[in-house]
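FORM 7B: Structural annotation worksheet

SECTION A. Query
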Amino acid sequence: MLDTDGLQLKNYIGVYENAISAELCQNLIKEYGDACQENAPVVSEGKVTVRQNAWDAKLLLLNTETEKKNNIDDDSPITSLILAMYKLVDEYLYQRDLDLQNTISRQFSNGESEGVRFLRYDLGGHGAMHSDQSPATANYRILTCSINLNDNYGGGETLILRGDSQVKVRPKEGKVIIFPSNFLFPHAVTPVTSGTRYQGITWFS
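SECTION B. Predicted structure
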């Protein structure tokens, strides 16, 4: 008989407290926070476009391979983040006994190239409900990894739908959320009511 308890959608949402150190979070904000200047795009009718009513945040697309070459010091913030995320994804797969080690390439994707997206949500910034797989994306996304870089702001919670209910993940510095990128896991960011929200996000494809 099939054990359906292990197939519940909630079991595929991994929340990891203090996964990224406070020092690393602060260094990433210092290094990349002010560089988030582009309007974050969304996919609408199969095309990538800017719609601030759907996603109101400032974006920096960071190519991790270029950054690693530019940073001779292996202790650079981006190198430390990459190593931490590899470790977390391995833990996520192991905990769920998912045989995906040969399916997931050991590469990050920021939507256009290998890398990480850094996002800055100013007052009122938010993200409407969406899923991360789309024909318009350059890579076939399998896992979404969302990284909370700070928590000294109001609002800005992550909502993830699971069937007829939702998971609300409150912000905390260093918290990482990992979940499948497909249509079964639509998610959103509630409006920021005070302060500034900083987030890193990447996908494994």
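SECTION C. Observations
The two ends are 32 Å apart (CA to CA). The chain is about 20% helix and 35% strand.

SECTION D. Sign-off
Analyst initials: ____
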